[in-house]
Amino acid sequence: MKRSLLLLSALLTVSSALASSVADVKKKGVLVLGTDPTFQPFEFKGADGSFQGFDIEIARAVAKDLGVKLQISPVGFGALMPQSVTSGRVDIAMSAITITPERAKIVSFSAPYYRSAQVFIVKGGNPGKFAWPANVKGKVIGVQANTTGQFAANDTLKPKGAVIKVYDDFAAGLADVQSGRIAALLGDAPTVTSLQKRLPGQFAQAGKELVSEDYGMVFSKGSDLVAAANRTLARLRSSGEYQNLLEKWIAQK
């Protein structure tokens, strides 16, 4: 406990020292976004190699309102939260990041911009062989490292007898679902919808959602970029642009 408190204190000190501000961003002319581009439809690389997705477009809107360009830095999720922000490597982090009280001790969040849930992804045509809340004892369930899926699995599924397998790469977990090496993989609900559209018949959702959650943009502790991001969110919602982005990237048609 003492070491944990010392680590938290150190992270808070570093975060304060390297806090990115509106003035800093405007001075350098770019807003640096850290993201793990593996969470379609939120952030991913298109066929032409460009970064695309719901989060990317919201970040571009924040940069536009600040009068600067958006610079995208791909970062694996394990290093993205919170290290990339507290170290000053990026000004903002977006990667379907859930707002939690523990994370909020180290970084600052914008207002929630999307409501999601952690769900079980299984091999297509196979959902009946896995269910939640029943039938998890002895089942191998995959999670991505440092995600709320991992935290929820450790708190809820492990005590029920599930075996938790941790992946650094979400795609590796999907491959193990396909091969049958694991029974299910925890992921964000919109990810299942995206997989079903892109890869018909290969993946499905099984059982009830494990936990619901809100996504937020992440900034260094106390940064005034939070207020700027919240103003952009309010503008997007009032203008109807948010709904257009939702329908473009996430809402089922």
Automatic annotation (TrEMBL):
Q: Cross-referenced CDD domains, in alphabetical order? A: PBP2_peptides_like
Query: What PROSITE patterns does UniProt report for this protein, alphabetically?
Result: SBP_BACTERIAL_3
Q: Where is the Solute-binding protein family 3/N-terminal domain?
A: 30-253
PANTHER family the UniProt entry points to: ARGININE-BINDING EXTRACELLULAR PROTEIN ARTP, MEMBRANE-BOUND LYTIC MUREIN TRANSGLYCOSYLASE F
Q: Which family does it belong to?
A: Belongs to the bacterial solute-binding protein 3 family.
Q: What is this protein called?
A: Amino acid ABC transporter substrate-binding protein
Q: Which coarse location class describes where this protein primarily resides?
A: other
| Record domain Ionotropic glutamate receptor C-terminal: where | 30-252
Q: Which SUPFAM superfamilies match?
A: Periplasmic binding protein-like II
Tell me where on the tree of life, at the top rank, the source sits. Answer: Bacteria
Q: Which Gene3D superfamilies match?
A: Periplasmic binding protein-like II
Carries keyword Signal? yes
Q: From the Swiss-Prot or TrEMBL record, state where the protein is found.
A: Cell envelope
Q: What keywords appear on the UniProt entry?
A: Signal
The organism of origin for this protein: Deinococcus aquiradiocola
What terms describe the molecular function in GO for this protein? ligand-gated monoatomic ion channel activity
Does this entry carry the keyword Signal? yes
Query: Where would one find the signal peptide in this protein?
Result: 1-19
The transmembrane residues are none
Entry GO CC: cell envelope; membrane
